[in-house]
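G., the chain you wanted modeled:
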Amino acid sequence: MSQQDTLVPRRPKLADRLVDEIRDQIRSGALRSGDKLPTELQLAEEHGVSRTVVREAVTRLAADGLVTARQGAGVFVNEQAPVTIESLLSEMSGKVSMVLNVLEVRMAIEIESAALAAQRRSGSQEADIVAAFAEFDRLLRQGESTGSADFAFHRSIAAATNNPFYVEILDVLGRRTIPRDLVTTFSPGVLQSTEYQNRLQGEHRDIMMAIQDGDSTSARDAMRRHLSSSQRRYQSLLQGGGNLANAFPRQTG
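Predicted structure as tokens:
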């Protein structure tokens, strides 16, 4: 196994675990509506993680609508934790079958959103797409998790359609928009490897350049190739029973 394949960012894995533990406490009733979560320091000590991990976990829970941070008061469980697509997906976190369901939804909206972004983007919206692409590169060079930048890239394209419903759908899906964040338990060394992520970034580059050129047909085709490639990879993973050696063969292009 190469050094690239053993490079597994630690923080996102710990944050995922903490998110799941707090979510389970809310579902079980151990944390009730209106209850205040332990302080950042208390959570860090209790779960043996850094305060940075705690902050990331709380941010995710807030994005899911499960908690609200009140300045100067703390973080509280929402009065009515919503039953949303996000909470449904969380029940299936780590399962390739759910990744395929998410990808199916994404293909239904993102292929056309890329074409619309090529037609409608403003200068500032194009700059946001480029900035998210560059952030992916920066995180990859530093060996950090690229999931947030990957999501930001796709979300910035949705925003460039100037149709708020494209953004709303991606926000509902949240972090589960990014397939590898769902199945890192299978083999995070491959899913987070530099080789694999460089391949993804090449697909992102094709989408970005088509949007910059204002070529809606090429943008649509590039997004279709990107999502279809992901779909094939995870179908192979599902059929292979978690064998990533078969699901992610070495390839060019």
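The longest strand covers residues 67-70.

Shout if anything looks off.
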